[in-house]
Design a protein that fits this description.
single chain; about 150 residues; 2 domains; two-stranded antiparallel sheet; 2 strands; about 5% strand
Length: about 150
């Protein structure tokens, strides 16, 4: 079967003997048969295994790349939403502060035009308005003001 060094046979090794109906092989014969299969260009077992592994690897690579693309798209969408929410919150906060300042200026003009007997009442109103504007700014910062206005409008 394997005769001499350098001789390559593609035949499977023959059993040395049978024990209880099962074939028993010499270790050297098995080693030579495996080496022959590995070194042969048309080795069926290793070629099939390599092709299957290559296909499985390509499929796994495609799945991973697809998952990466979907994850990247999701992260990009979340970043855009975060930026939009941040900008909206800044605008609303600025508008609330501007409205509070305008109200304070208006009350100051009224108090200058009015008599000083009503000054205490104007100050109380101004304090209430400033407190209300602070509460509105806090609600807007927490994102609750939009829900409240939507509920009132709806």
């Amino acid at each position: 079967m394997f005769e001499g060094v350098g001789m390559v046979s593609t035949a499977a090794p023959r059993p040395a003997r049978f024990e209880r109906g099962a074939p028993v092989f010499y270790a050297d014969d098995i080693d030579r048969a495996a080496a022959t299969e590995i070194n042969s260009e048309g080795g069926a077992f290793f070629t099939r295994g390599a092709k299957k592994m290559s296909t499985d690897f390509d499929n796994a690579t495609q799945m991973i790349e697809g998952a990466q693309e979907r994850m990247s798209a999701a992260i990009t969408a979340l970043r855009k939403q975060e930026e939009a929410i941040s900008e909206g919150s800044k605008r609303v906060s600025q508008n609330v502060r501007k409205a509070a300042n305008d109200m304070a200026e208006g009350l100051n003009r009224i108090s200058k035009l009015g008599d000083f007997n009503n000054l205490e009442r104007y100050v109380t109103l101004l304090e209430r308005a400033a407190g209300a504007m602070t509460v509105l700014a806090d609600l807007e910062k927490d994102g609750k003001l939009a829900k409240i206005t939507a509920a009132v409008k709806g």
